[in-house]
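Entry 12.
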Amino acid sequence: MEEFRLDAATAINEKLGLLRELGSIVLDIEVVDEQVRECIYQRVSPQKLQAAIEECTRLIRLANDTYFDFLGSRYGCIRQFAADFLATFTFHSHLQPNPLFDAVTLLRKLNAEGKRKLPENTSLDFVPSKWRAYVVDGSNQIVRRYYELCVLWELRSALRSGNVWLKHSRKYANPESYLIPPKQWITLRSEVCQLLQLPESGELRLQQLNTQLEAQLSRLDKAIIGSKLIRIEAGELVVSPLKASELPQSSKALQQLLTKRLPQVDLTDLFIEVDGRALAVI
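Predicted 3D structure (tokens):
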């Protein structure tokens, strides 16, 4: 992708030069309308112009593009292990129903039967908006390549977030394994809630949090009115960055004083000291 960006920067600069040349001809009032194409072809051959248009098609990216097509170019490599990966592991989730699991089950079935084409009624409920333009092509057909890549991508994210977990895994363990076991929690609940000054009733705690949320939203409404830093544009909340506060002179003087008192140490001496401490720990 980085190589593409570097190549694109050069190509885009060339296309801008071509656009400037064509624009100067179109805007030249001395060139009559009937002679515009003739004047253009005198400077740029039709073959060169056609090649430039084709390259522009390659360079143009989608809005908020995520460059998933570069991942798609490695689909052949990913296919070498993706089927075995999905068939080997049994995934679990506390989210039921889970559209992502339905997609995993579908891919397992297609891989087992050696089929490539997706059913017409294939669900796309798990596909986020950033993947839609790739998974569904211009003729409203589902592209198997990007559908499978999207499944693997979303499965990866779900494993990292804990929405999906694996038995006997340390890194991708059941999130509940990090909590106090239910049987032990029964005996500890009163003591823990008392220490945290929280009610034992979950419904009461939710009511408290809802009250806090309404109070904070009320404060936000008042802050937005007439504020230039916080505003709503096109249905989205926009928060302008705050300017850094100027440090008082006393703080600056203290910084300078501390800097002067720090000893001047050669970098090699610092490496030797750190290396010695590391050996001592080992």
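Annotation: The first strand starts at residue 91 and ends at 92. Strands lie at 91-92, 165-166, 230-233, 236-239.
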